[in-house]
Amino acid sequence: MEKKSNAGVLKFFGIVMILFAIIYAVVGTLAIAGVAEGILPGHETQEIIIIVLAYAVAVLSLICGIACVKGSLGVCRAFGLLFAVVGLVSLIYMQVTQSSFNLFDCIAMVLGIAIYYLARQEQ
Is the pTM of this model over 0.85? Predict the structure, then answer.
């Protein structure tokens, strides 16, 4: 019985994570330019935090995307779990403190779960 490989799907999610990194780099750049008001709800008065978090997420997404494309399963699992947990915590935090929903956090959580699951199945 042959084992099905999820390597192609994992590479696809790697490319999506690289695109996610580009989007977050743009968000950080817009925040530096001062035109990012309203992009991330609840953070309008904390622009330095937006800039730092946007670039941190961009770098982590880029690393995760490259790891997925290269097929480094251990790194993929670790980053997938990281994105899933951080995305969930951020969604809960935003809902409790701001009564708002952040689509970027939801996307990060779903991508993290998918990457973790696929990398785990590929073992």
Answer: no
